[in-house]
Amino acid sequence: xxxxxxxxxxxxxxxxxxxxxxxxxxxxxxxxxxxxxxxxxxxxxxxxxxxxxxxxxxxxxxxxxxxxxxxxxxxxxxxxxxxxxxxxxxxxxxxxxxxxxxxxxxxxxxxxxxxxxxxxxxxxxxxxxxxxxxxxxxxxxxxxxxxxxxxx
Length: 152
Fold this sequence. Notes:
By secondary structure, the chain is mainly α.
């Protein structure tokens, strides 16, 4: 049991480091230009932040409190929400012209979504009657790729 806790703590530490590096890269890219104004900040970043908060709040719902509307609703939800999330991030990066080429913008978005999906699944493992699943992370990344391709 102690080894499982140690491995989980080590995994969290490594995941936090990767997330911090990606955030630093994004912030350095965005602040390299003097294009910040309040309207642009609200127009582009507010939807991204709102979507991230929405995803984490939905992940906080205990498993037995989630209503079953139709079969495979979990997969549909993961694909659609992460497609919208990736679309919004891609749109924001393009608006600030922080990454010059579409390929690197796509890599940055998918990398960020991958780390975000991992932290989301890790968060779900602490919620009662919920489990973390690498399959959900894969589905999240597929949804993010599809949302990004809409903006290419």
